[in-house]
């Protein structure tokens, strides 16, 4: 070892350097196990090196540990070694020590090390070498804590007057970190910070503006008085970065002082016109928007902003496009007219190759959609749901027509179905973005009561295409939101119900569909079958839709021949085996809706026949349909889902009565030799009225607010005074019983174990009688026990009084109260002795006491726990934001308050410890016997 130390000054070292460590990590990077072993070995080597007295070796070890700490290893154990290297007179060692402190102590909670570091930091701050002072300021800014800020703030303030501009600049920036930990220091040194705005060095002034800008973001009202000086700097400064910080500062100040905008807005607009830097242009626009300087009637400023933003969209830099789009959206929210005028910007952003730009553009697309452009916009959005390979085929058709339009040129407005803008390219998107697209398509199509939908057949086709694409995409919850949209359309648009039922029949697997596709649409089946049941009669009778195209109506009339009858629908549903499995799931309500809808289909089927006379074939068709429904309902008669079971059994009995009435009509036809007979009143006037008495109507989201509450409604008034009195009596009685039980337990402890054992043997002979007496509930109005138990309790009390006659700490009870308490305790004991089980601690009493303590303790402990887990180096600006510089306080009081805040938690802990007291004599508690409750189980 001595030879190694002698050779080290000549550059000969046998230990691994940081370079060797990095090479070793890269060599084993492919194998995680080898990499972990290598790092563990390196840490052990560093621990060995830290035990030496050679500072050169220690500094190298700390350098390697700082590098390994970035891999997630806990290096807080070497905090004192860091202090040792920081105290080295050699600057190279000191720099490594500060680097390790910034790297390790910043992430770990090392209050002990920071306490020892305070004097070292003060020494380095006042060093004659300004490089060491600069190093100390950097370390303070990184590791400053609340205690350290209180001790170091005075020394840091002296550095604001240092002769070197580097030190003054770093001191100003470090003071901001000190203010975050010690907000009251801002009152004392605020003027010293403001003085640096007049510093001779521009870098110091820029640093001061940065600090004031950050402080103004928290509480702008404190810095309004600086507005004239800052405004002069804004006009005179030639440094773009200084101007950008001033613009950010003024955007915060103008929120507190709106009168500033009259002075600032012309100057900011002048900067926008003069400058060619896009960064400064964007900050000017952002300052106007964030500072609420743009009003709805200020058209000139809005046009200037949009004119400058167009430069961002013409750039090939995606970052410029994104920030430009954000500013454009903010501007359009104030001036809605600009959206229609510059719609190409948003429409082009919808299908931009950058996914972030696409998502951002979707926020404002609602204001852009109209009846003319909704079809191409939805088409563009729907194409993004396609797989990547299939997108190109559809985009080629759109881009081809787009190119033709650009070659021809547009003379005025065009009614083309394709959006004018840049060509769209295929892109791979995530499921989250696809789900966002689907919600946005539904939102823009359904807004304002579907006012932008040109043709509902087209919209139903879009929803159907989305469901087909979801078979491959398999995005969860899509089937539910699409089916809810179908229900809303069915309620609001009567003319499209026939087409809607046809679509729902296909979605429900009628007549035939693979079971895998049906399971993917499981969450939407209930809504679709509800639509079928609700509008089945319109599906059969109505052949028209909302389309004005004659060809489409002709095609629809041809397809009307292929409509499915009710019997075919029931047969198809009965063949779907997975529905039978759903019916035996407790928390699935799909079959519940199926049962209701099939019963409704039977009603609609009978309504189609009319209330006039029916033929024999019509009666037989109705009976056949009823039998098919009853047969399918019987499969769920034993369902564990009680709601399904109840509905099925109810409808089975009702349909059986319907069949009996139909049989009666058929017998009447045969007996009278007539071909027609009126349907039974039970069916037409009874059963059908369950479903056709009223129709569903759309309800607005704010309709409930329009309902006026009754004038005489008083929610504070009791409905029944006697019930309230009974409740209070019951509550007081239970509260008294709890007190009795707790008090009785204390008496048992005082009495001792021997007396309890004697009572057990005495009471065993009379266990049966006592148990029967108390189980029969032989209590009088005052809650006392029977006469026999009263005599036993009296004897027990006499024994206790004789036993504790000379005990000064024993408190004797009143006769009546003692009689009441002891009788209840005795009752509980007799019931427990009936159970021949091992002794266990009484759970009821423990649960109740622990519950109260946990509730109070959890809230206190939870808040303390969060505070303890918070690192001292995490920036918390809440206290600094609440600071008001206008309130004059003395500096001594400020710092005294800081120390007082630190001492208060200790006082609280001491007070809390005084509340609890321990018993003078340890008494062993005998566990109580648990009462077994008798429960009747229905088998």
Automatic annotation (TrEMBL):
Domain spans labelled Clathrin/coatomer adaptor adaptin-like N-terminal: 43-655
Coiled coil: 388-415
Keywords: Coiled coil, Golgi apparatus, Membrane, Protein transport, Repeat, Transport
Gene3D superfamilies from the UniProt entry: Leucine-rich Repeat Variant
TM regions (residue ranges): none
Gene Ontology annotations for the cellular component aspect, listed alphabetically: AP-3 adaptor complex; endosome membrane; Golgi apparatus
Keyword flag Coiled coil: yes
Source domain of life: Eukaryota
Gene Ontology biological process terms, A to Z: Golgi to vacuole transport; protein targeting to vacuole
Keyword Magnesium: no
Subcellular location(s) per record: Endomembrane system; Golgi apparatus
UniProt xrefs under PANTHER family: AP-3 COMPLEX SUBUNIT DELTA-1, DELTA ADAPTIN-RELATED
Homology family: Belongs to the adaptor complexes large subunit family.
Assembly information from the UniProt record: Adaptor protein complex 3 (AP-3) is a heterotetramer.
Function: Part of the AP-3 complex, an adaptor-related complex which is not clathrin-associated. The complex is associated with the Golgi region as well as more peripheral structures. It facilitates the budding of vesicles from the Golgi membrane.
Record-given protein name: AP-3 complex subunit delta
Gene encoding the protein: APL5
């Amino acid at each position: 070892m001595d030879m190694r130390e002698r050779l080290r000054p000549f550059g000969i070292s046998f230990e691994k350097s940081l370079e060797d460590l990095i090479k070793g990590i890269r060599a084993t990077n492919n194998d995680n196990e080898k990499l972990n072993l290598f790092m563990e070995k390196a840490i052990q080597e560093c621990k060995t090196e830290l035990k030496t007295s050679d500072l050169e070796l220690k500094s190298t070890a700390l350098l390697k540990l700082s590098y390994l700490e970035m891999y997630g290893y806990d290096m807080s154990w070497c905090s004192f070694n860091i202090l040792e290297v920081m105290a080295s007179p050699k600057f190279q060692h000191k720099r490594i020590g500060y680097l390790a402190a910034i790297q390790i102590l910043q992430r770990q909670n090392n209050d002990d090390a920071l306490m020892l570091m305070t004097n070292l930091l003060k020494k380095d701050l006042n060093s004659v070498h300004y490089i060491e002072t600069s190093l100390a300021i950097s370390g303070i800014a990184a590791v400053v804590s609340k205690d350290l800020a209180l001790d170091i703030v005075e020394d840091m303030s002296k550095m604001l007057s240092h002769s070197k501009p580097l030190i003054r600049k770093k001191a100003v920036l470090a003071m901001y970190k000190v203010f975050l930990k010690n907000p009251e220091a801002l009152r004392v040194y605020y003027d010293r910070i403001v003085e640096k705005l007049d510093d001779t060095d521009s870098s110091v002034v820029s640093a001061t503006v940065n600090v004031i800008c950050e402080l103004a973001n928290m509480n702008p009202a404190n810095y309004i008085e600086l507005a004239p000086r800052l405004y002069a700097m804004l006009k005179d400064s030639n440094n773009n970065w200084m101007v950008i910080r001033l613009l950010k500062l003024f955007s915060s100040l103008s929120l507190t002082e709106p009168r500033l905008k009259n002075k600032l807005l012309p100057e900011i607009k002048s900067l926008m016109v003069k400058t060619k830097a896009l960064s400064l242009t964007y900050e000017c626009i952002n300052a106007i928007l964030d500072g609420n300087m743009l009003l709805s009637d200020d058209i000139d400023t809005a046009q200037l902003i949009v004119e400058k933003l167009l430069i961002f969209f013409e750039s090939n830099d995606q970052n410029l496009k994104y920030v430009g789009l954000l500013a454009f959206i903010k501007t359009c929210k104030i001036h809605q007219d600009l959206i229609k005028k510059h719609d190409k910007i948003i429409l082009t952003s919808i299908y931009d190759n950058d996914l972030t730009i696409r998502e951002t553009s979707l926020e404002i697309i609602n204001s852009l959609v109209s009846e003319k452009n909704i079809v191409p916009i939805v088409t563009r959005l729907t194409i993004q749901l396609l797989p990547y390979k299939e997108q190109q085929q559809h985009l080629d058709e759109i881009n081809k027509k787009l190119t033709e339009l650009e070659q021809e040129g547009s003379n005025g407005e065009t009614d083309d179905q394709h959006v004018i803008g840049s060509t769209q390219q295929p892109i791979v998107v995530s499921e989250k973005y696809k789900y966002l697209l689907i919600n946005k398509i539904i939102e823009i199509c359904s807004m304002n009561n579907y006012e932008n939908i040109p043709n509902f057949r087209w919209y139903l086709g879009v929803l159907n295409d989305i469901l087909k694409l979801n078979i491959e995409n398999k995005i969860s919850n899509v089937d539910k939101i699409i089916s809810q949209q179908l229900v809303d359309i069915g309620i609001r648009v009567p003319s499209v119900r026939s087409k809607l039922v046809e679509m729902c029949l296909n979605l429900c697997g009628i007549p035939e569909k693979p079971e895998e596709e049906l399971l993917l649409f499981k969450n939407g089946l209930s809504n679709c079958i509800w639509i079928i049941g609700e509008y089945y009669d319109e599906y059969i009778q109505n052949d028209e839709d909302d389309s004005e195209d004659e060809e489409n109506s002709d095609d629809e009339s041809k397809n009307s021949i292929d409509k499915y009858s009710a019997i075919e629908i029931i047969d198809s549903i009965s063949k779907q085996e997975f529905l039978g499995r759903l019916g035996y799931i407790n928390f699935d309500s799909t079959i519940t809706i199926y049962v209701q809808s099939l019963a409704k289909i039977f009603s609609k089927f009978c309504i189609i026949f009319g209330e006039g006379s029916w033929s024999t074939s019509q009666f037989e068709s109705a009976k056949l349909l009823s039998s098919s429904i009853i047969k399918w309902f019987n499969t769920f008669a034993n369902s564990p889902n009680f709601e399904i079971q109840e509905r099925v059994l109810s409808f089975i009995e009702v349909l059986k009565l319907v069949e009996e009435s139909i049989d009666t009509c058929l017998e009447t036809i045969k007996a009278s030799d007539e071909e027609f007979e009126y349907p039974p009143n039970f069916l037409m006037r009874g059963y059908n009225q369950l479903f056709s008495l009223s129709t569903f109507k759309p309800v607005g989201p704010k309709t409930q607010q329009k309902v006026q509450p009754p004038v005489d409604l008083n929610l504070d008034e009791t409905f029944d005074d006697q019930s309230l009195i009974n409740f209070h009596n019951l509550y007081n009685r239970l509260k008294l019983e709890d007190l009795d039980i707790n008090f009785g337990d204390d008496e048992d402890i005082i009495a001792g174990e021997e007396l309890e054992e004697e009572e057990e043997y005495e009471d065993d002979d009379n266990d049966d009688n006592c148990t029967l007496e108390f189980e029969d509930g032989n209590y009088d109005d005052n809650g006392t026990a029977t006469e026999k138990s009263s005599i036993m309790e009296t004897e027990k009390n006499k024994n206790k009084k004789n036993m504790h006659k000379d005990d000064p700490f024993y408190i004797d009870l009143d006769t009546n109260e003692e009689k009441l308490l002891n009788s209840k305790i005795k009752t509980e004991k007799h019931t427990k002795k009936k159970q021949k089980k091992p002794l266990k601690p009484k759970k009821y009493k423990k649960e109740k006491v622990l519950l109260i303590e946990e509730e109070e303790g959890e809230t206190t402990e939870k808040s303390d726990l969060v505070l303890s887990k918070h690192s001292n180096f995490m920036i918390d600006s809440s206290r600094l934001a609440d600071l008001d510089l206008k309130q004059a306080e003395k500096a001594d009081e400020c710092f005294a308050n800081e120390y007082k805040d630190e001492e208060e938690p200790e006082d609280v802990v001491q007070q809390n410890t005084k509340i609890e007291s321990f018993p003078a004599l340890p008494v062993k508690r005998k566990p109580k016997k648990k009462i077994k409750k008798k429960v009747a189980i229905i088998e």
